[in-house]
Amino acid sequence: MATQDVIRRAEKLREEIRLHDYCYYVLDAPLIPDAEYDKLFRELQSIEAQHPKLATPDSPTQRVGGKVLDGFQPVRHAVPMLSIRTETDISDQGALAFDSRVRKELGLGENDPQVVYVCELKFDGLAINLRYEEGILVQAATRGDGETGEDVTQNVKHAVRGLPFLLEGDRPSVVEVRGEVYMRRDDFERYNEKQRQHGLPTLVNPRNGAAGSIRQLDPTLAARRPLRFFAYGLGEVQDWVFTTHNEVLEQLSVWGIPVSSEREEVDGAQGLVGFHRRIEQQRDSLPFDIDGVVYKVNSLALQAQLGFVSREPRWAVAHKFPAEVQLTVVRDIDIQVGRTGKLTPVAKLEPVFVGGTTVSNATLHNEDETRRKDVRIGDTVIVRRAGDVIPEVVGVVLDKRPAQVGALFDLFKQLGGHCPVCGSAIVREEGEADWRCTGGLFCPAQRKEALLHFASRRALDIEGLGDKLVEQLVDQQLVATPADLYRLDLATLANLERMGEKSANNLLQAIAAGRQTTLARFIYALGIRNVGDATAKEMARHFGSLDNFMAADAERLQQVPDVGPVVAQSIRAFFAESHNRDVVEQLRASGVHWVEQEGVTLRVLALSGKTFVLTGTLVGMSRDVAKEQLENLGAKVSGSVSKKTDYVVAGSEAGSKLDKAQELGIAVLDEQQFMQLLKECETK
Ligand code: IVH
Asked: 172: CA distance to ligand 1 center in Å?
């Protein structure tokens, strides 16, 4: 017999766990750490194990465990599950056409008021009917053919996060909630990552993830798939009356059922257009995939009046967005060389319209990805292009693999070990995903990119030196390195395609203007691997001069904030190449120079007017460098001690100058104090 205390404790735990489930899965704002949640959960499990009578069907613990099924039982729907007409005209016209059809059917004239609609997202998953009797979730069924679906109660209970097993508050004796089971993109990625780590099969996309999991016969396997649910309508309802669709959604939410907050009640055609546009813009920032929006007449009375045509309601329509995912065939796999020599496999595709444009190339990222997805020439693949993102091959449809398919991708073998552009050796460093060409500025592919980078906004900001121009300059061997830009003349430039005298003149002026820059921009412009503009700024601030920067060894480079061995190694490797050092010298010789940047100017003030004398041997820094650093900070460095001397820096074995300073009562800094001073000035 369970005591009152135990019964109350079980109730309390159930209530608490449900609250945490709701916060975690529906609101996405967990109140407690996972470990705390697990504790509550285990306590409830143990109470129910000792007192099986307390294990009510609505207990959150009922989600766990479960037997493998032989198959799914058919479920005849009390109210048929219909589909909706899809408006394939993805322009505003799709919305306008729907509104005019509705108005016509309702016999509304031009002067009659606007129809009120509810706009929702069109979720991309699997339609499910949830049957609640006396508030308890008793059955979940797929849509099937609309008349008869399959009983997937166990799987839904196991795998769908955030679904109440018991409705909150007042509830009807029977209510069927209809909506979509879907998988969030981040859950999908995380799931696939875990599968990959264990060498297990991955899901092709979130939609298949949702549909496949619900029809998975082993509920414990289904339970591992992180699914979610959004409600968008009703099936059978007893003892409850609604008058508008909006009211339905509000009430579902009150019962604790997840309803997307991306919904809106709008007036007339313009309202529909506005929603369609707004959601299309937000599409890529939503945490889950959608393939359009759905418009529904709000008034249930008007819905009844409108009725159905061929099993589709006249009061609702799905208005699509351009598809972001399409199937197509891989004709070839090319390997492209990037600015830093990175070799990227790219699938050459049978052109396909996806994400609003025709795509014929899609990135395969790198060798490992290509092999993991096992993309081969001849394969039918899923291509995705979302927003402004580079089109990518998501996966292969193995069912469609032809007998005559290409071999498993092998980058080194395909290239015979050489860069496809310049013939230099290719390398793949340990722990790196990418193969690289070792040609550096010598490789024409890298040349073009190096020039574009050199001219880019955050580098030397040479306006007008774009893609097409760089292409011509390099291909016609007019320019090989950035230094060659300063040798170009008007006649040469004016003769190029799409250039007249005027553009040529403008470009020459822009190139000349780029001569005056800052040290940070110059360092960034060199295009050293792993040195972005933030790192370049730190370098300029820390070293103060290009020579100091170029001379710094790996250890000194790592004294710069946020610089680790990888960045230091990239910088050392860059300056180890004689042709890179040559380019730097040529640039300087052609008049490229820098004005002090903000940070440095401030430092100049830090010691201005102060006179220093260096004596003895410094351990951490040569006397020349110490002198240069002081001068960079605005100080004067003198060879002899006098009354005008402000500080004497005394290294080891300092001799007469130290004595003199002590005699005159001048401040003496040992090496440690001196370094401290430099550091303080630098941060000023
Ligand atoms: S309403 C009678 N609303 O799209 C109206 N359907 O053919 C029934 N879907 O597979 C559907 N989001 O699962 C409706 N907000 C939404 C929806 C939606 C996705 C799916 C639905 C069905 C298909 C409609």
From this structure: 23
> Which of residues 295, 320, 345 is at a domain's end?
320
Give me ligand 1 centre to Cα 204, in Å: 22
Both tokens of residue 674?
Answer: 């001196």
For residue 160, what is the domain's CATH number?
A: 3.30.470.30
What's the rounded Cα separation, in Å, for the pair 363 and 361? 7
CATH classification at residue 527: 1.10.150.20
Ligand 1: which residues within 6 Å by Cβ?
82-84, 120, 122-123, 127, 180, 232-233, 294, 313, 316
- Best of 81, 120, 232, 252 to mutate for ligand 1, by most ligand atoms within 8 A of CB? 232
CA of 93 to the centre of ligand 1 (A): 21
Higher local confidence (pLDDT), 20 or 547: 547
Residue having the nearest C-alpha atom to atom 16 of ligand 1: 122
Mutation to probe ligand 1, out of 83, 117, 128, 178 (largest number of atoms < 8 A from CB): 83
For residue 442, being part of any structural domain is answered with yes
Q: Answer yes or no: do 224 and 348 share one domain.
A: no
Whether pLDDT at 64 is above 50: no
314, 358: one domain: no
Q: Which residues carry out catalysis?
A: 122
Q: Let me know whether 580 and 610 are in one domain.
A: no
Cβ neighbors of 12 (< 8 A, separation 6 or more) are none
pTM exceeding the 0.85 threshold for the entire prediction: no
Closest residue by CA, ligand 1 atom 17: 122
Percent of the chain with pLDDT over 90: 51
Pick from 107, 82, 89: nearest CA to 272: 89
Average per-residue pLDDT in the chain? 88
Nearest-10 Cα torsion for 424, 430, 433, 436: -10
For residue range 486-521, what is the model confidence (pLDDT) as tens digits? Answer: 999 999 999 998 888 899 999 999 998 888 888 999
Q: Give 267-309 pLDDT, tens digit per residue.
A: 999 999 999 999 998 998 899 999 899 999 999 999 999 999 8
Task: For residue 105, tell me if it sits in a domain.
Answer: yes
On whether both 485 and 529 belong to a single domain, the answer is: yes
Which residue, judged by its Cα, is nearest atom 24 of ligand 1? Answer: 83
450 shares its domain with 507: yes
Q: Which of 24-38, 375-389, 602-616 shows the lowest mean pLDDT across its residues? A: 24-38
Euclidean distance between the first and the last CA atom of the chain, given in angstroms as a whole number: 75
**Mutation choice for ligand 1 from 86, 88, 119, 122, CB with most ligand atoms inside 8 A:** 122
Contacts of 197 (CB under 8 A, 6+ apart): none
Same structural domain for residues 490 and 565? yes
The residue type found at 667 is: A
The mean per-residue pLDDT over the stretch 547-564 comes to 93
Q: 467 with 515, same domain? A: yes
Residue 250 CA to ligand 1 centre (angstroms) = 18
Residue 670 CA: distances (Å) to CA of 556, 614, 676: 21, 10, 10
> Does 655 fall in a domain?
yes
In sequence order, what E strands does 597-646 have? Answer: 611-615, 636-638
CA distances for 67 relative to 217, 484, 505, angstroms: 9, 73, 78
